[in-house]
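To make the argument concrete, we let one protein speak, a sequence paired with a row of structure tokens, as a model reads it:
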Amino acid sequence: MGPQPSGYATSAQSADPDRQQAHDGTALEMRKDRNADAGSGVERTVPICGSVWRLGADHMERTSNMSRTATRILFGFAAGFLSHLIFQGALGAGLYAAHLAPALPWSLKPVPPFGIPLSLNLGFWAGLWGVAYALLEPRLTDRLGRWPGGVAFGLAGPLLVFWFVILPIKGLGLGGGFHAEMVPIHVAFHAVFGLGLAVFFRSGLALVQRRARPFAEPLRG
């Protein structure tokens, strides 16, 4: 007996419900095996297209989160650097003009051991404080507000480290002796630094969001 036409096989399977059910069951088994998680033996009941979409979405979300974190760190460092040069520099210049500071805040005097100019050296450390602020900024802003959060960070972080770590290392004692004429200047310098941090950091994020908005609008359709 020769081979039967394909239509014959289809009609035969349709006429035999038990055979059709067995055929469907075998196909389902094979599909579950293909979707089984390798090494775990746990079957995935999600359709193939849905699982691929979900994996892709998870990957995009992780990548987006990493990108946002990297952006915040970059802007945090830049904000700290600029806050030192501009906000603290302006305050220092004003104090110098009022004869309350012995010298201008900007200096190209080399700092050992690498001979980096003083202003750039201090700007680098200010940038690291900016990174710390960028990571803590959401909590500070939620609890204290945008600008008060920056000021609080400048007073609670850099100022305390300056008083209780930097000055003692330099042999000047805790708080440099907490002289009455210097304590307000220390507080003002670090409060202004925190305020500058908040201003530059939020300005940078706002600029990125403004530039990203035209690209997001067509996607919303």
Q: What stands out?
A: The longest strand covers residues 110-111. Residues 69-220 form one domain.
